[in-house]
Amino acid sequence: MFMGRLTFVILMGSLFAAPAVAESRAAAYLVKQEINDGCDGRQGRIDPADLIERDLDGDGMPDLIISHEAIRCAGKMSRSSHCGMQVCSVLFYLRRGSLLQKAHDMLGANVKIGRERIPKVHMDAHGGGGGYVRWNGKSFD
User: Fold this and answer.
1) Which residues contact 94 (CB under 8 A, 6 or more apart)?
2) Which of 27, 33, 43, 73 could be joined to 22 by an S-S link, Cβ 3.0–4.6 Å?
């Protein structure tokens, strides 16, 4: 009985394990750049749970969303310099071949992605109002 419970706990833990910081080298490079920029050259990290690598434009290849809200910097000012009181820079990159190209940026907080084939990217705006953007074939709107 104990061994069955232990196996179940290990299996459940592996299902909910934190994802890697970035699945591709292009994404890892961009994340490192944004941490360096947002932390003004100081050490920093990004919360892997808030790093979104998923197909945003329906072409079958993983794209990338980096929200500066997820970046924590070393020192007293731990928040990214790309954050204000309520919202932070949110950057959208689309995969073109092996590269990720910046396609959109905006201010937002609490970024969540829908389950649609071309997903809605939900976030809060200044004042706490919510909304979403979605790839329309040419841009995010």
Assistant:
1) 56, 57, 63, 100, 101, 103, 135
2) 27
